[in-house]
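Notes taken during the Thursday session

The instructor put the following on the board and asked us to keep it in front of us for the whole hour. The protein is Short-chain dehydrogenase. We were told not to look anything up and to reason only from what is written here. First, the residues (276 in total):
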Amino acid sequence: MVKTWFITGTSTGLGRLLTERLLARGDRVVATLRKPGALDGLLAQHGDSLQVLTLDVTDTGAMRIAVADAFARMGRIDVVVSNAGYGLFGAAEEASDAQIERQIATNLVGSIQFIRTVLPHLRAQGGGRIVQVSSEGGQIAYPNFSLYHATKWGIEGFVESVAKEVAPFGIDFLIVEPGPTCTNFAEGMDRAPPMPCYEDTPAGEVRRAIASGAFAIKGDAARTVDAMIVAADAKAAPLRLALGSTAYASISQALAERLRQLEAQKAVTLSADREV
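Then, after some discussion, the predicted structure tokens were revealed:
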């Protein structure tokens, strides 16, 4: 059965590859990007199966118009993919106010407003699935990515809550959490000017590892996208899907340590209740 998808952030990376894969199997795609022209080759190849919209997710008003137009034009949209985003690289105090505001406006507020925008349309058509592209960084944290992690932890909490709100309307969510993957993510990062005082800290270590190529990137973009499609096609999707061996190892270790700390503090935790 042919499906219709709405995907943000399709000019490069996982969004672009996802668009290519879906079109190749015969699905219809509404693809958004900030700069026109990046998908001209796909448009020429796939014709009416691909609708391309120029959209910046930080412009909520324009996004609402574009989404309404897409639902009206396509009739029904089965899967909505919130993918637009990028990384801000640098220790917390290295980043400028403008860099922080742009990171949060794009990755967190943009994703929140996009989901809020599609919900009425999905309700009206009787349901649908929303895929939020997050990261292993939605459950763990590396030095030098504090603002990026803030957006990913934030959007995962938002989605987990909204999923409970809209389940009665036949709307469900899939949060995808890839580990480090061979895409253009690093090239697209916004980098804060480094401060010498962080040179001999964990932030400096991560900076040097990335600069030297020693930071392990095990994820394969094509296999990641294929796994996303399989999960999005499933009758019942998991709320979270970690992808890649690095994501599996880092998330499982983080969750085990969190549980260990919770259990170690159990007596203190329970002591905070009122006496009855």
